[in-house]
Each structure stands twice: as C-alpha cells, then as structure tokens.
Design brief:
Blueprint: H1 4-10, E1 14-15, H2 21-26, H3 38-41, H4 43-55, E2 60-62, H5 70-74, H6 82-97, E3 102-107, H7 122-139, E4 143-149, H8 152-163, E5 171-175, H9 189-197, E6 203-207, H10 212-225, E7 230-233, E8 239-242, E9 245-248, H11 252-256, H12 259-264, E10 267-270, H13 278-289, H14 317-321, E11 327-332, H15 341-353, E12 357-360, H16 372-383, E13 387-392, H17 398-410, E14 415-419, H18 440-451, E15 468-473, H19 480-493, E16 497-502, H20 506-515, E17 523-527, H21 533-542, H22 550-558, H23 562-577, E18 583-586, H24 593-610
Parallel strand pairs: 1-10, 2-3, 3-4, 4-5, 5-6, 6-7, 7-10, 11-12, 11-18, 12-13, 13-14, 14-15, 15-16, 16-17, 17-18
Antiparallel strand pairs: 8-9
Helix pairs in contact: 4-6, 4-13, 6-7, 7-8, 9-10, 15-24, 17-18, 18-19, 21-22, 22-23, 23-24
Amino acid sequence: MEPFLEFLKGTRVCLCDGAMGTELLRRGYPKDAPLELASITHRDLVRGIHEEYLASGAQLLETNTFGANALKLSLFGLEEKVEDIVLAGVRLAKEVSRGRAYVLGSVGPLGKPVGKGLGVEDDRARECYRQQIGALLEGGVDAVLFETMASTHEVALAVEALRSFDQNIPYLVQFSFFPDGTTPSGDSLLRVLEFLKSLDACVVGINCGSGPHEAVQILEQFSRHLPGPFSVQPNAGYPQIIQGRMVYGAPPEYFASFAGTFVRLGAKILGGCCGTTPEHIRALAQAIGHLEEGTTLEVLEPERKKAVSEASFPPSTFAEKLGKRFVFTVEITPPKGTNLEGVKEGVRLLKKAGVDAVNISDSPMARVRISPIALAHILKEELGVESIVHFTCRDRNLISLQSELLGAAALGVQNILALTGDPPSVGDHPFARPVFEVTSEGLVLILSRLNSGVDFAGNPLGKATNFTIGVALNLNAQDLSQEIERLKRKIDNGAHFILTQPIYDPRDLERFFDLFHGSLPPLLGGILPLRSFRHAEFLHHEVPGIVIPERLRARMAQAEDPKHEGVAIALEVIRGIRDMVAGIYLMPPFERYEMTVAIIEAFRKEDKEDA
C-alpha cells in the first residue's frame, strides 16, 4: 500500500470504521472490564469486529486503544500493562487489515481535567500520552488519531508527546462537541477552530458528542474557518437506556443520508462513533459510491448564549473586613447528627466575644458530619454569624462540586476554604470511594469561574457568585519550596485569603516570608491552643504539619494550670506574628471554646490599652 498521506491526497473521500466500544458491549463483553483489555482477553471478538468493518468497506481501521493510558487503566489495576494492551490492539488491527486497510492508532483523552491544580498535572499528562503513543509507534500504526478530544490544552500536550519521538508520522485530531458548540471541557467552537489552525495535523474533524444532524452544524463552521480536509464520525443519534443497555436509535440508512452533505462541506474521511455498527458503515459505503457533485450549503452562524445579565451577589461581611481590620475566626466542628443545640451554644459564646466568622470543617478526618453548608446557613439565619465553609474535593466530582457551591451561594454562604480533603481510608467509612477529580488548586479555579459568571465548562450562569476564596498553607511542610509553589498557583487561580496550619514559633512565618516572592492576599495565622502536656506531645509527634518547640512542651509539662498556660502561649505567638498577618484563625482543642474566648478577649483588651 502507498503511504497514508499519499492515499489521502489521491482519494476524494475514504471510509473509516465505526464504534468498537459499544460493539464490544453489544456482543457481550463484560461491562466491568476495560474495553481495551479485550484485545488480550477476547481477541476473537475484537478481530471479528475489525473484519466486519473491513468487509463493510472500511479503508481505515482504528485500534482498540482509545482508553489505553495509565490513568484510565489504573482504575482496574492495569497501569503496568499499557504497552502490552496497546501492542495487542495494534497487532489485531494489522492482522485483519493485511494491506487492505490503513491502521490508525486511537488515542482518547486521559479522563480527568488536565492542568495546574486539576486532576492531572501537565508533566503527568505528557508522560501518559508518551507511553501510549510510543507503544502505538512500536506496533507500526500508519497514523495516530487523537479522537473525542475536549480540551485544546490537553491536545497540545498530546501532540507534543507525539512529536517528542522525532518521527514524521501523520496524525489526525478530532474534537467532540455538544450541540451548543462547546466541548465537554468548556472550550468554545471558535477557540477550537483557532487552535486547530496552529497544528500540522493532516486531517482535523469531529466525532462523538452528538448524531449526524448536529454534526452538520459543527462542520459548517469548520468549513467556514478552516481549509480542511475534515473527518466526521458522529454517534448513531442520542442514546437511551432500554432494559439496562445503552441503545442508539439512528438506523444505518438515516445515518448514511448525511454523507453527501458532509462531503460537500469538505469531509474527506467519514465513519462512525458510539452506537454505529458494521451496517452503518456499509450504508455509508453505498452512499459514498453514489455521491454526485453538489453546491456548498449555506453556512449558518450558531446561536450563542448571552453573557451574565444579572448583577452578582454582594460581598460577604467577612470579605469587607479582610485587610481592613484585624480579624478573628474560630473553627467549629459540625455535629454528627442533627442536634445543633451544642454547636449553637458555642457559637453564641464566640459571637459575644466578637468573633468575625466561624470556620466549619467538612467531615474532618473523613468522618461523617452534618453538611457544613447547611450549618453555615442556619448559623447565619438564626444567630447572625457568618461562616467560612471548609469545602473538600474528596467526595464530589466536577458536577457535584459546582452544584453544591451554587447552592451555597443561593443560601447566602459566601466564604469558602478550598481544600483537597482527607482520604476516606483514615475515617469512619474506610470502604467509601474517594473522588478527588480536582485538587484544592483546581477548586480555587472553579470558584473563580463561578465568580466570573460561568461554570467550569464555560456555560453562563445568569448570575455570578461572589465567593471569598480561602486556601490553606502548611508552614512546616517537608518541602516548603514546593508548598510555596502550590500556594502561588492557588493565588494565580484566584485565592482571596490564606489560613495557615497552627503556628507555635513566629520564626516559621518569618522563614516563609523570606522564601516567598510576590504579592500575598491577607493571611490569617493559625493558632491551636495547647490544653495539656500530653496534648502538646500528641500534636508534635503524631499530627503532620505541626511542630511545637521543645521549650513550649517543657512549659506545658511544668505548668500548674495547663489550660491557662496554653492560653498564655497562644497570646505570646499572636503578639509575635500580629504585624505579619491580617488576623488569627483559632482552632479550639476538643471544642473548648472558652479557651478561644479567653484569647480573643485578652487580645482585644491589650489592643485597647495600646491604643
């Protein structure tokens, strides 16, 4: 066979195959196993699907390697089998093609958001793509197909990984779009089109996302902005669940009826994605054989959603105080049940002492507690006290994160501390599955986008939120330089204030300022009063991120009244850092709010005397 690029130049239109994944499932492949593993465990099944597509007229066969990357395979404990699975997929496609069809190495997205503070950092993404692509090249594919892509940033990393092999192998790029012209990651159609202009791909196009009718509307825009050639591989319509199975309704004849329109708009490669079968490809082959010259359809400008039209929420009272007065916040632990009288009593005590906000932890140590958002709303409505809600990524995917945050905004909860969260393995439900689709850095970015009036995918909200976004800082991290780099990314993503882990030596904060270069949002120093010598020993030796100098532990050991001594030590630390911070974040030990009240009252008294 002539080289793949020569073949493309010499043909008006060529036919790619259809779906592999939905065909495997339709033919009985187990739902709880990775589809790509079928190339090893169900070789005859995969081979048979390839053979049927070839017999239907396909000139391009895609390898069964779409999700064969380390991240996706790690969900099944198969991350060490990437090369074996990819090579097996290439081998089967080549065995079937035998010089009668070209083999495209299928590469899909990694399955998690890619970027700083998101599910996958850039370096890790490059590494995963390079591993998968390297095996495809070793197997001898004729070209690499990046398909069902949703993020221009991720595609740029994938292409960079391909080019790192210093091989002049051709590649194709296909994006997936929703009917409104956005990708699943939120990139707009126009942004994708501009991005595709910068690539040296031999073919660009669309696949998955929707059926052939909506693919026409997307391809019209491709035709208007890009020279082509294009590839088009839609789904067989929208799926529906019938008796537990995903069924696609567009019949082969209907699907193939769009072939002429696709070709007139510049498509050179036609094929199918989810729900398409060898029958769909056979119908396409027949349609291609009867194509006649036609005029280009009128290009229609897609409808665009209007930007935010309503004013955003007013800022929180806490936000208005930040950086303008020395503030005190106190952490409270939400109860396990629905009896809130105890926590209300404690908050009344704190309010009387003049606290500016209470911090509500989010199922700390992965132990089940009442929703911090619900509690924050109740405390504001009934007691007039604002909260800083600790919000973790542990239990929520991208949809749930945004849904709960929008609910918080609607309930008047506007101060959010973005945290990654403790893993379930340390809590009272160790069997629970963690989510962690994003880290705290990514959560800050999501909050910032909500504040700008769009969700993470770029969809307008109608009314922007106005969250005051907090982040955590561990001054005693094992690698403080790395901790500072993470903090800088959080600040770049939109953080408004910082809460530190407990401080027992002002020099820890001084060391941080010596190493940090750049502007900082208001920083609140963390203070956890010591209650006893054993408490001090426990914190120092068993809690990560807490370092208590030996001299302070000795004071606690010798103290006649340990709680009084703990309050005295806390006040000494506050005096030592007050000129370096915008306020104090108090963490009462064992919910002993009276200790924090004593600290606040003593500080306010000293402050008045100094004035």
